[in-house]
Design a protein that fits this description.
The protein is built from 13 helices and 16 strands. It has helices at about 10-15, 20-30, 35-45, 65-80, 125-140, 165-170, 190-195, 225-230, 270-285, 325-345, 365-375, 390-395, 420-440, and strands at about 85, 95, 105-110, 150-155, 215-220, 235-240, 245-250, 255, 290-295, 300, 305-310, 310-320, 345-355, 360, 380-385, 400-405. The strands form 3 sheets. Strands 1, 2, 3, 4, 5, 6, 14, 15 and 16 form a 9-stranded mixed beta sheet that branches. Strands 7, 9, 10, 12 and 13 form a 5-stranded antiparallel beta sheet that branches. Bound molecules: zinc ion (ZN).
Length: about 450
């Protein structure tokens, strides 16, 4: 302030420097950032070259050549940052930094595999953001009490073997050795891919993380939804990962000649399914909250312009952070489907196909993220994750939290996925500060 004073009389400078306006501006100056935005960005750019598609984005499926090459690059980054690297029998990569005390580990990381025609941010930001956090700790000469580990989980997206959050699921003991025999489209087993990763599939069980090994886990991730971007809020404090339940529904009507069957004698399965789709939407919208519901497709039989549809298959999916709300919505939906059956003269049966319970983020970790964002001069809001995450598995092992950053236009799983370098660095800074707060606050 004094240095830039244009007045030659020192007392005027002091007077100006002490005016309330100056005091306010001094207070609102952004707090020091410990992570390096450019350095983090350059590693993200380099990572984006592995599996890059000519029309933008990447296809870097878990267990693919591109994934293997990218993993090698990330292992190199970990080693450069002074981390001791270990790869478990599920292929999960861990980089260890010692703490000053014998305490459980504070874990942070994400995944680097993508969906088919995916983007460069989902997973990458949290994996490389965690390594940048380590570099920042090294630069500030910070020794934490807890050991810190950076993790890159294997095959989060699950496009290759048809099962998502694979590596973290094995670490959490939710996926067992049966998975070893599963074959990909080329007939190559999961066991064979582990061998290509240099692992011994017979030891898969030892990839299971022992209870008590982790003090806490914090994952940085893009939101994959529009809330932060639209509200221009840099940090999302994730409340948890929503429950997802799915059902396969079949409407049975009667296929008949579309010309000769009078309108009042039809048992039109498609007309009934159409009512059901709208009924589902009405139920989901009927109460406040962020719950969502979806009918992803319909399969209509026999599927001809001159035949009244006799059979329709469709899936129902419901998501919310509150498992009981999902159950309540399903009850209402079922009741509405029953009403449609009577009105349309059809029969509808739905069978549960998939249930993932919600995973709550730990209250103390959420508070640490909130405090960390505030200390970095960054606004935050609380919000759920509507997408599945590795962290939902880790919640069974340790207090878990996630930091979200804005996704442009809420787009993800697309080459159009984008988060600005500044938003990414803000997220990494919030991660850095969260880890330090947890290191101070956690007794264990
Ligand atoms: Zn992800």
């Amino acid at each position: 302030m004094q240095r830039n004073c244009r007045y030659h009389f020192a007392f005027l400078c002091i007077f100006i420097a002490a005016t309330p306006a100056n005091i306010v501006s001094a207070q609102s100056a952004p707090p020091q950032r410990h992570v390096n935005e450019q350095r983090l960005q350059s590693t993200l750019t380099r990572l984006s070259e592995f599996g890059r598609n000519p029309d933008g984005g990447v296809t870097r499926l878990g267990f693919s050549e591109a994934d293997m090459a990218a993993r090698e690059y990330v292992v190199g980054l970990m080693k450069e940052a002074g981390l001791r690297v270990r790869i478990d029998p599920a292929g999960n990569i861990f980089g260890h930094r010692d703490g000053s005390q014998q305490l459980p580990i504070i874990l942070s990381g994400s995944h680097i595999d993508s969906v088919v025609h995916g983007g460069n941010y989902d997973g990458d930001v949290g994996s490389l953001g965690a390594i940048e956090m380590i570099r920042a700790l090294n630069e500030s000469g910070t020794m934490t009490r807890h050991p810190i580990e950076v993790v890159v989980w294997t095959n989060e997206e699950g496009n290759h073997f048809g099962i998502g959050t694979l590596g973290s699921g094995i670490a959490a003991g939710l996926i067992g050795p049966k998975i070893l025999d599963r074959k990909d489209d080329q007939g190559v087993t999961f066991a064979e891919w582990l061998r290509r990763y240099g692992q011994d599939p017979a030891k898969l069980d030892s990839a299971r993380s022992p209870q008590g090994a982790l003090a806490a886990s914090v994952e940085l991730h893009i939101e994959q939804g529009p809330n932060l971007y639209e509200k221009k809020i840099p940090i999302g404090v994730v409340q948890g990962i929503v429950a997802v339940r799915r059902w396969a529904c079949v409407v049975s009507g009667f296929a008949n000649h579309a010309g000769t069957t009078p309108m009042n004698r039809r048992h039109d399965a498609l007309a009934a399914a159409a009512k059901d789709v709208l009924a589902l939407r009405e139920v989901v919208r009927s109460e406040n909250g962020t719950q969502v519901g979806n009918v992803g497709y319909t399969k209509v039989e026999p599927g001809a312009p001159n035949v009244v549809p006799g059979r329709v298959e469709f899936p129902v999916e419901l998501r919310d952070l509150d498992d009981s709300k999902v159950a309540r919505m399903w009850e209402q939906v079922s009741e509405r489907f029953g009403r449609t059956d009577k009105e349309e003269g059809v029969e509808t049966h739905c069978a549960a196909t998939d249930e993932t319970k919600s995973a709550r983020a730990d209250a103390n970790v959420q508070q640490a993220i909130r405090d960390a964002a505030k200390s970095a001069g960054l606004g935050s809001i609380d919000l759920p994750s509507f997408a599945g995450q590795d962290s939902q598995n880790i919640a069974t092992l340790a207090p878990m939290g996630m930091i979200f950053i804005p996704s442009k236009d809420g787009i993800s799983h697309s080459p159009k996925e984008y988060s600005s370098p500044e938003d990414i660095a803000n997220g990494a800074e919030a991660l850095y500060r969260t880890v330090l707060l947890l290191d101070q606050r956690l007794n264990q």
